[in-house]
Amino acid sequence: AELSFPETLYYDLYFMSGDTVCLAGEEGLLFASSAGELCGEFSVGDSYLVDYSFGSRNYVVAFVSSYRSGAGGTLVTLDQRGQELGRRELDRDIISLSAGSKHLLVMTGGGLYLYGQDLMQQSAKETLITAKKAILRPDGDVLLLSAYSAERIKI
Q1: What would you report as the CA-atom Rg of the chain, rounded to the nearest whole angstrom?
Q2: Predicted confidence band of residue 14 (pLDDT cuts 50, 70, 90)
Q3: pLDDT tens digits, residue range 20-71?
Q4: For the residues of 113-132, what is the DSSP string, one character each?
Q5: 78 Cβ contact list (under 8 Å, min separation 6)
Q6: Is residue 54 helix, strand or coil?
Q7: How many CB atoms lie within 10 A of CB 10?
Q8: If you write DSSP's letter for every residue of 15-71 in order, what string do you get?
């Protein structure tokens, strides 16, 4: 199969459930079958795709902002056909996104927030976070990574 998009730069791809491939690029996310047929699309318009994370094999989360720095914006979850599962406006910068099979972890400078795929908040730990990255582990624990160390916590 072959996909051709001559004027668009895609810099990541991920095989989702079924035969769907998700491509992440400057203009948003594109969903296609492994046979090369377009299944869906999520365009960021005049905004920027600041960050994204693939959750398991059935959804992807994208953080879209009007600013390249990501100073506030919209968090959106999409299924393997590009259909919106949830949407949430955020007024803080996102430092790290980590999507698991059923939950999504968002790290900001002010705390850690756990959401479902529909972006309904499940729990939060509001505190100053100095880590560089947070990873949601399959068992639900969080791994906080800093420059020279890692810490495993529960939220």
Answers
A1: 16
A2: very high
A3: 999 999 899 999 998 889 999 999 999 999 999 997 788 999 999 998 877 7
A4: EEEETT--EEEEEES----S
A5: 29, 31, 40, 42, 59, 60, 61, 62, 84, 85
A6: strand
A7: 16
A8: E-STTEEEEEETTEEEEEETTS-EEEEEE-TTSEEEEEEEETTTEEEEEEESSTT--
Over the stretch 107-147, which tens digit does the pLDDT of each residue have? 998 899 999 999 999 999 988 778 999 999 998 899 999 98
Q: Of 110, 10, 98, which is closest to residue 52 (Cα–Cα)?
A: 98
Say if CB 41 and CB 31 are below 8 A apart.
yes
CB 142 within 8 A of CB 152: yes
Identify whether the C-beta of residue 70 lies closer than 8 Å to the C-beta of residue 36: no
Structure tokens belonging to residue 10: 């895609």
Query: Residue 68's Cα: distance from chain center in Å?
Result: 16
Single-letter amino acid, residue 104 = L
CA 86 to chain centre: 12
Q: What are phi and psi of 112, to 5 degrees?
A: -115, 135
Query: How many C-beta neighbours within 10 Å does residue 108 have?
Result: 17
